[in-house]
Amino acid sequence: MTASRWVAALWLPAVLLVSWQVLADQGVLNAVFFPPPATLAATAVEMLREGELQRHILATLRRATEGFAVGVLAGMVAGLGMGASPFVRRSLDPLISAVWASPKLSLLPMLILLLGIGDTPRIVLIALGCFIVVSLHLVDAVRGIHPAYVELARNYGAGRAALLRRVYLPAVTPAAFTAVRLAFGRALTLAISVELVSSPEGLGNLIFMAWQGLLTERLYVAVGVAAGLGVFFHATLRWLERRLITWRADEKAR
Amino acid sequence: MRFECSQLGLEFGKGAGRVQALDGLSFDVKEGEFLAVVGPSGCGKTTLLRTLAGLLPPTTGEVRRIPAPGEESPRTLIVFQEHGLFPWMTVLDNAAFGLEMQGVAKDERYARARQLLQRFGLAGREEAYPGQLSAGMKQRVAVVRSFISRPTALLMDEPFGALDYQTRLRLQQELLDLWEQERHTVVFVTHDIEEAILLSDRVLVLSAQPARAVGLHRVDFPRPRHAALTADPEFARLRVRILDELHVTPHPAPHALR
Ligand SMILES: Nc1ncnc2c1ncn2[C@@H]1O[C@H](COP(=O)(O)OP(=O)(O)OP(=O)(O)O)[C@@H](O)[C@H]1O
Ligand SMILES: [Mg+2]
Fold first, then answer.
1. How far apart are CA A183 and CA B184, in angstroms?
2. Contacts with B101 from chain A: Cβ below 8 Å
3. Ligand 2 ion: Cβ-proximal residues, 5 Å cutoff
4. What is the fold, at CATH topology level, of the domain defined by A36-253?
5. Domain-wise residue ranges, chain A
6. Ligand 1 mean position to B20 CA, how many Å?
7. What ipTM was assigned to the predicted interfaces of this complex?
8. What is the arithmetic mean of pLDDT over B191-200?
């Protein structure tokens, strides 16, 4: 990133933080409800020294990653299958639409009844969220492949295997990447949401406990860390995407 | 490979949205012949090529593809007018795609592709992606890919449509030179009547949509040919006749055009 981009990305958060600090120092903001950034930083350092913050972050990341891995894999298979076969698409579409439209957290009680207490229902819920994002993106991507490319490959004698390897897979790679990026964001939010309602550890649990005890410093630290994780992973996956996908769809179908 | 088309008709869609693209087309393409096809935009030229290649089954009539004696693997390749290159492959991989599908080893197919790319003025652009090329460059890559794949019949859909006049002349010459070595059957669609006459053995003239045959002309100039031919009075006469046919109201296809 160039310097001007950093400036553009950082000036607004910086202004907000500084104003917050100043307003809290002046007593305009109630320091109990809105502890100033300097206090929050001190709390964060304290929580890091005790290893508490790391423990919660790791718990959230582990949960998010496990659900993400399962969900993305299943989503890719389902998405490609739905793109390739109208029968598969028509069979899965109603279910996927139903889950897509419902707040995922509302499915948690049912999953607990089904899978028992423990981490499994939480991870399945996260996986479900990722699955929806990835499968929906991939169906569209496969269906958006211009038939001219398939015809072109066939004209040169491409069989099923060659079509998959040289046309379908490369054609959907950009969309797949976008879907993976969005899915990871979804995995993080879902992990934290699940932890808010049911989990002995994780950032969501940290937020919930802090809220219960009105420990506002810890509350804001946890919320800030969650937001920071989101920004970090989004930027990393974006960067990776730009590095790995070298071609631009000049002749975009649709 | 030669083609025999009888009473070809093709309709897209059904009911109110029905479009008739081809209507009662009968003609032959002889073994090793260079047939040019001219006709107004939207008349059905691309559709005709796709039908010849077997990618679109005709609604009525039939296309017979007859391999020459001893021709082991008949290959009818199209140089497509649009979406002719895979945007996710480099120029080199696009050019070598036909060889890849034939199972030619990587080193060999790249070497052959590089050689022909150079001949078509694309040296140094091998690693570029189609999105980074001009329309004319893309067309040239598509032409390279088709020639390199050793077709038994080559169907070209306005391959030089996006080129400026000078480049076009140069590439027409390049095409003629290449073709004279190979002499496979060619059907060459173009808007450009001069190009049609200059390159071909016969010119098939189509009416506005739906495409019907309104003329079929032998072009008897000796080969190898050169752009200077366009100044020949016989050339000019032929050109005027075809222009005439493109402007008069189309009459039903005479059955005896073969
Ligand atoms: N897949 C399709 N579905 C419906 N109609 C089509 C389809 N492809 C072509 N047509 C119609 O068939 C007619 C002939 O189209 P075609 O592309 O063959 O014309 P063309 O002679 O190649 O035109 P141009 O010179 O502009 O390339 C047009 O009216 C077109 O709208
Ligand atoms: Mg066309």
1. 52
2. 153, 156-158, 162
3. B 46, 81
4. MetI-like fold (1.10.3720)
5. 36-253
6. 9
7. 0.85
8. 93
